[in-house]
Amino acid sequence: MILCASPRAQYLAHQSAIDAAIRDVLEKGIYIKGEQCAAFEREFATYLGVLYGIGVANGTDALRIAISACAVGAGDEIVTVSHTAVATVSAIEQAGAVPVLVDIHPREFVMDVSQVEAALTPRTKAVVAVHLYGQPVDLAPLKQLCEKKGLWLIEDCAQAHGAEYQGQKVGSIGHIAAFSFYPTKNLGAIGDGGFVATKDAALAERCQLLREYGWAERYISKIPGGNSRLDELQAAILRAKLPHLEADTESRRRIAQQYRDALSDLPLALPKERAESRHVYHLFVLRSSERETLVARLKAHDIQAAIHYPAPVHLQPAYRGRIRTLGTLSATEAAAGEILSLPMYPELSASDFDRVVGALRSAYR
Prior knowledge:
alpha/beta; eight-stranded mixed beta sheet; three-stranded antiparallel beta sheet
């Protein structure tokens, strides 16, 4: 089967370096908060262009800790989107804040920044910009609005490692940012992992306290905190893979362009990349009113497609009727009925690519 994403292919591509990194950790015998985690925090922060990086247990924790570090909490509102992984809204609520959801651009699939101001109330304290699928949000007007209104700008970069906006890496533009290293991510661990990035020393210090019981020194809690640490094995694996991230990103971008070239004459809405941005194609997501037919055709050819995401957060059972939205979110709801993710990973072979394209084209003969 051709998978939609293949963490195993990524492991095999870098197997010797990953195996050596794991062996080094196991032999040294320090498995939590050792030299691997500290080194990865420095290296990934440098890659992003920020001063501080804090490794945590997963991407949801990264966003929750980033929110809490900004002293956003009980009763405070945060504006974000409904078209996202539910983890975005979950993290907001775990931090004690209240999500307020706005609509998306129908082709870019990310926040329609023009709608944010209308969603603000006196209780709004932050905006979470979700760089979904690897596509950066239009950050310049959003940052200007946040500065004007005195709001925190928090970037959700879970799907956007290496993406750029106006020449800067996402994760370095807002006040603070959250990353996920779930195995399918562009920079993925072999297990869970997360990261908080910031240029602000005070925010970084607060994140470090929040991730481990509020300890400024061992066993002495300066503030209330929890337990969310990036372990040494995952940090070592990520260090082994980080030097290949740029090459892997270019492979994703090349495959995306090949999809566009091969499918441009079909009645499909293909991903749009903003001119001032570098899309990193965590997912290659198209739109079709005949999605179910395409899914069935791909499945018949032993090809796994996926839907990211089949139900907007505000329509899911856990959230329906209790989360405020700005209007009806018509673009979000329409997209949820038509989006389809094609296989996308750097190791996708030419023959597998041809099979995917052939299966799609066969639906229109």
